[in-house]
């Protein structure tokens, strides 16, 4: 993990005040909607900068890449928004002590659908990105996207306690 990435992750953890270890023992560790929104805003601003630094696009590639990227990100944001809404709903129910079997069933089905929808978007846009940048740059772009999403998911998971049985 790069120094920049480590700093971003550390900032998230401090901002959210939750770690995987303590999230399992306290309902106060459940992320609030404000925490989720703050994390989302921070990530969006850092994401673009990371791509600029790491992709080394030519002016011609940049001209075509960024509009397509914005279209792609909007679709991904919509799906990730569903994920964040699901996390918020779980947090509310967890704090209220109302996570029942019916909610657990619905939450897992929704989570799996969100994962599937994300993969579908990435598959669709791979072809589009490949038309405007070489395969190696497109692969690097997808690696960066995956790394950033994984880091975000790691931080989010720190604020999601396990379902109590």
Termini Cα gap: 35 Å
How many DSSP-defined strands?
0
Tell me the overall shape. Answer: elongated
Largest sheet: none
Explain this structure.
With 165 residues, the protein is an all-alpha fold. It has one domain (3-158). It contains six helices and no strands. The protein has helices spanning 3-16, 20-23, 33-55, 59-96, 101-132, 135-158. Helix 1 runs antiparallel to helix 3, helix 3 (33-55) packs antiparallel against helix 6 and helix 4 (59-96) packs antiparallel against helix 5 (101-132). It is elongated, with a radius of gyration of 17 Å.
Q: Would you summarize the structure shown here?
A:
With 165 residues, the chain is mostly helical. It has helices spanning 3-16, 20-23, 33-55, 59-96, 101-132, 135-158. It starts with a helix and ends in a 7-residue tail after the last helix.
List keywords for this structure.
single chain; mainly alpha; 0% strand; 165 residues
Task: Outline the secondary-structure elements.
Blueprint: H1 3-16, H2 20-23, H3 33-55, H4 59-96, H5 101-132, H6 135-158
